[in-house]
Automatic annotation (TrEMBL):
GO terms for molecular function: metalloendopeptidase activity. Residues 215-309 form the M23ase beta-sheet core domain. It holds the Pfam family Peptidase_M23. Keywords: Membrane, Transmembrane, Transmembrane helix. It comes from Thermoanaerobacter pseudethanolicus (strain ATCC 33223 / 39E) (Clostridium thermohydrosulfuricum). The lineage of its organism: Bacteria, Bacillati, Bacillota, Clostridia, Thermoanaerobacterales. InterPro entries: Cell_wall_metabolism_enzyme (IPR050570), Dup_hybrid_motif (IPR011055), M23ase_b-sheet_dom (IPR016047). This is Peptidase M23B. The chain crosses the membrane at residues 20-39. CDD domains: M23_peptidase.
Length: 314
């Protein structure tokens, strides 16, 4: 007899009850576990648009461009919800967002605006008068657009499921960091020593305060109020004080066109024009300005342009 069969037979029990237990342990349980393992991700993936940040930006940009085109003297700006565009395309393209292109997105976005009126106005002085036409627009509802697209009931349901998805998760690049991530300090020191919990990454995101789409120009480092904040590099304080949504904020200018910003501070420990060294305490974590809880909003700018700070610490 084959050696493998011998081994298997040796493990095979002889009475019926044991055979049942054997089957349960080695066949039914693993089968169930495997089924559970795959069922979860599959159902989850069906409701999550498989779209990357660059593609999302394309939708946000196009939705805003078309929205801007609706504003004139007689028509107010019609805001098109980019999330509805993504949800529709998730169904249309069956999640394959490589098929998305700006021209198609624009066509879809335009379906959401409906011309309801046209106003003619004579402008200028005689004899140089011209007739100017202004179109007045209205926003179409998602249902109206889905019907225009001839979506089936099942497809309409799917679109609505996609919209339920919390896009902030998708747009939050912080989610891409491993759990035990720690900053690697090269040219810049980490502004909150020893605290590496990023609650919001750099890039487009759903505004946590207003729920609207915005661009997050820095990273949010969650830390308790009063934790020290240090200068990331040698430089000079360009601004120290209150600045709107930033709350109490410090700007430090560095060599090479670099600037770092530290926002929502509970207390500022430096003054404008003060020279600082990397690692100097400049302030303390807080929740001032537009903030939902104590954290440091940290930015790195190059010639005024905000860049992803994490790029300097990996
Ligand atoms: Zn922030």
């Amino acid at each position: 007899m084959h050696i493998l069969s011998k081994i298997l037979l040796a493990f095979l029990p002889d009475d019926l009850e044991s055979i049942f237990k054997f089957a349960l342990l080695f066949i039914v349980v693993p089968a169930l576990l495997i089924a559970l393992l795959f069922a979860g991700p599959i159902t989850a993936a069906e409701k999550i648009p498989l779209i990357n940040t660059e593609q999302v930006k394309m939708y946000i940009y196009t939705a805003n461009k078309v929205s801007d085109s609706t504003k004139n003297k007689y028509s107010q700006r019609i805001q098109i919800d980019w999330r509805q565009l993504v949800a529709i395309d998730a169904v249309r393209f069956q999640q394959d967002f490589s098929k998305a292109n700006p021209a198609e997105i624009e066509k879809l976005a335009k379906m959401f605006i409906k011309k309801v009126d046209e106003v003619e106005e004579i402008e200028g002085e005689f004899p140089n008068q011209v007739v100017k036409k202004y179109e007045v627009y209205k926003l179409r509802s998602l249902d109206e657009v889905l019907s225009l697209l001839n979506f089936s009931t099942a497809e309409k349901e799917k679109v609505k499921e996609f919209i339920e998805f919390d896009f902030s998760l998708l747009l939050n690049s912080a989610a891409n960091l491993p759990d035990n991530w720690a900053a690697v300090e090269k040219n810049f020191k980490w502004p909150v020593p020893g605290v590496y919990r990023i609650t919001s990454g750099f890039g487009p995101r759903v505004d946590p305060v207003y729920g609207t789409m915005g661009f997050h120009s820095g990273v949010d480092i969650a830390a308790p109020t009063g934790k020290i904040v240090i200068a990331a590099a040698d430089g000079e304080v360009g601004y120290a004080g209150w600045n709107g949504g930033y709350g109490n904020v410090i700007y430090i200018t560095h060599n090479g066109g670099y600037e770092t910003r530290y926002a929502h501070l509970s207390r500022i420990a430096v003054k404008k024009w003060q020279k600082v060294k990397a690692g100097d305490i400049i302030g303390y974590v807080g929740s001032t300005g537009k903030s939902t809880g104590p954290h440091l909003h940290f930015e790195i700018r190059i010639n005024g342009q905000a860049v992803d700070p994490l790029g300097f610490y990996r």
